[in-house]
Design a protein that fits this description.
The complex is a heterodimer of chains A (118) and B (297).
Chain A: H1 21-31, H2 41-54, E1 59-64, H3 68-85, E2 89-94, H4 101-117
Parallel strand pairs in A: 1-2
Chain B: E1 6-12, E2 16-23, E3 28-36, H1 41-55, E4 63-69, E5 81-82, H2 85-96, E6 102-106, E7 111-116, E8 122-128, H3 136-145, H4 150-158, H5 171-183, H6 188-207, E9 215-218, H7 225-235, E10 239-241, H8 248-262, H9 293-296
Parallel strand pairs in B: 1-4, 4-5, 6-9, 9-10
Antiparallel strand pairs in B: 1-2, 2-3, 6-7, 7-8
Classes of the chains: A mainly alpha (118), B alpha/beta (297).
Amino acid sequence: MENCTGLKPIREDVDADGPDPLRAIAEKYYHLPCSVMTPNEGRLDLLRELASEYRPDCVIDLVWQACLTYDVESRRIRRLAEEELGVPYLRIETDYSPGDSARIALRVEALFETAAAR
Amino acid sequence: MTGSKAFAGIDSGSRTIKVVLWDAEAGCVVGRAIRDQGVEQARRARDLFEEVLRKQNLDPGDIAGVVATGYGRDAIDFADTTVTEITCHGRGVRQQDPEARTIVDIGGQDSKVIQIDGNGQVRDFALNDRCAAGTGRFLELVAERLEVSLEDLADLAAASDSPSPITSMCAVFAESEIIGLLAGGARRENIVAGVERSIANRVGSLAGSAICDPVVFTGGVAQLSGMRRAAEEVLGRPVRVANDPVYTGALGAALIAADLGRKGAIAGNCSILRKPFPDRRRVAYNGQRGVRSRDLR
């Protein structure tokens, strides 16, 4: 959910009443907790927020292949999931091809079994 | 046997199918068998299961529950439910070696490193399933290339004086590398030892730094004595080989079937002979709603 096409871009509205619409759009983009930004504390805050809202049993960190900055941040996400939220964490790196869907399904199924055992 | 206290675990792996029967009352394995995997996975598994039952003079009605695991688990139509091989290995190892905290499983086409807690529950896992390097399939290719049987690989590696370096990360390129080594006059013994080391290296990088002792080695590849040595060298710590490591997943599945049976979660109506394709009830393990991997796609 917390990814580029999920909740991340729609949590904040563009200021439609401001004097300069271009500036307002730019500001909204600037606030996105995207991993290309540094420091990017906003992403962890957003995850904490979502976690208290949705109370997840596990965290799946989806890293698109070639999104190097998400890849780098996965260490912090793992720490947040395991140490702070106390739920199992699974990192999946994939692209849009379906070749690894069976292997991803195995990982997710095993994660659910682990989460259910807690 | 009377009273339906036997449970079956079926591990339909990428290279072989394993069946283990567990007598929950006596607390021991009462039957098991292994057979090569094939095209008709469901039929092969069923034939093997029936063969094990016949050998033990058991009827399908004597089996109180069946759990399927492994790559082909969803095809096992007579199983009560399915559980991933990751959870099954954790359960199987807990039975055999309750102290274990890390499982290294090298199978036919993938390798896994699984961290478990004191109750045999999976804490974390890492899988290498993208290529054949670091798996049993690689060893098969090598055995074929060196014109020896898989069983002889272990003896060959033991006679190595200096393992040949195999640096390719891909089994196909590594095979070319081996052809080059052979052409250069390298001894077979050293090539095999080099291959074992390269597989261990793959698993070592999979494991990373988060390895807790004791480490237990499972899966078909653990049967080669040289692999344990290679794994110990790479991981820098002692590695124990599970008893009959090729059966660990199937044993775990049978034990989970028994766990479920004790909770009354599976009724024990193994209907393999009564109906050709019985509807499988989805049964929760660990309170989880049954999820089939095809539901997740």
